[in-house]
Specification:
Elements: E1 11-15, H1 20-31, E2 35-40, H2 43-53, H3 55-59, E3 63-67, H4 73-86, E4 93-96, H5 116-142, H6 146-151, E5 162-166, H7 179-198, E6 205-211, H8 221-225, H9 236-240, H10 250-262, E7 270-273
Parallel strand pairs: 1-2, 1-4, 2-3, 4-5, 5-6, 6-7
Helix pairs in contact: 1-10, 4-5, 5-7
The structure holds nicotinamide-adenine-dinucleotide.
Length: about 280
């Protein structure tokens, strides 16, 4: 539960929360006492996550969701308005998590194959344009309003509203055939620091969490049905690659998000959560 004199329950929009890191993020945020609205394109998985996986919170009216295609700006604008209604017109936190998470071109293609052009467009639209469009649609519900001046909310000890982009260590490091993914994730870095400066006067902080490799098969309906666990997905190499002597968990990303939500003096930062792997010579 949310505790401590400066901590309050926030209204949080999570994109791509039907499965994977987004599902874990949604659950840990709810466990911490926040309210969550989830967007995803996968209707069946989203329904399962909202009404079965998170059933207790759903019954209590703390979580709801909407099917939204992050490649469709009109859909984004309309579903953000729906989320804002659920939150009584006040969104505190946006987490831009949804996207194409597979780093390589499909089917072993290289960039010489002209058909990767379409995949390039999908990476850029889903992983870079969508966080811009989601942020643009949420800002009117996040920025400090005239009545915040009356209530003192703009000078309260609370950390204020914030936007968190989920990037990737692939913004900095590549294996072969990751041009689309790496470029979209590197683009998010520019979006993040530019937004941090532009949105400062509105009282909105903007940061980016760059996960390292995080196994997520257990964070899905299929994972639940097959009783997949995180440990079973981890190889010896997954451990050896990390100075932390263990592989990454979805909870590591949620811990970073919970930190950033309360970190009122932190904006414009790229927080890499990769167990130190980027620092280790391969
Ligand atoms: N898992 C990792 O190792 C890892 C590492 C670095 C960065 N990341 C980043 O973390 C985020 C989550 O990754 P994940 O591993 O949980 O991936 P995932 O594929 O398990 O989940 C991504 C979610 O986004 C949704 N999505 C995809 N396209 C969409 C669209 N057009 N509209 C709406 N929803 C859409 C999917 O349906 C899915 O629920 C991604 O941004 C990914 O790039 C993941």
């Amino acid at each position: 539960m949310v505790s401590g004199k400066n901590q309050i329950s926030r209204n949080i929009v999570v994109s791509g929360g039907a499965r994977g890191i987004g599902r874990a993020l949604s659950r840990y945020l709810l466990e911490a006492g926040h309210r969550v609205y989830i967007f995803d394109i996968d209707e069946d998985e989203l329904k399962y996550t909202t009404t079965t996986h998170l059933s207790q919170y759903h019954r209590e009216g703390k979580v709801d969701s909407a099917v939204c295609n992050l490649r469709d700006v009109e859909d984004i604008r309309s579903k953000v308005a729906t989320a804002a209604k659920f939150f009584n017109q006040k969104i505190d936190v946006l987490i831009n998590n949804g996207g194409i998470a597979s780093p390589q071109w499909s089917e072993g293609k290289t960039m010489e194959d002209p058909s990767t052009y379409k995949e390039w467009q999908a990476y850029i639209e889903t992983n870079l344009t969508a966080p811009f469009a989601m942020s643009q649609a949420c800002i009117p519900y996040m920025k400090f309003r005239a009545d915040d001046g009356n209530t003192g909310a703009h000078t309260s000890p609370n950390a204020g509203p914030c936007i968190i982009h989920i990037g990737s260590f692939r913004a900095h490091q590549s294996d072969p055939n990751q041009e689309g993914y790496a470029s979209s994730k590197a683009g998010q870095l520019g979006l993040m620091h530019s937004m941090a400066i532009s949105l400062g006067p509105l009282g909105i902080r903007v940061n980016l969490i760059a996960p390292g490799r995080v196994k997520v098969a257990h964070e899905s309906r299929e994972g639940d049905e097959n009783e997949t666990d995180w440990e079973g997905q981890i190889s010896e190499k997954d451990v050896d690659d990390h100075p932390t002597n263990r592989a990454g968990r979805p909870k590591d990303i949620a811990d970073a998000a919970l930190y950033l939500i309360e970190a009122g003096f932190v904006t414009g930062q790229d927080i890499t959560v990769d167990g130190g792997a980027l620092r280790k010579k391969r």
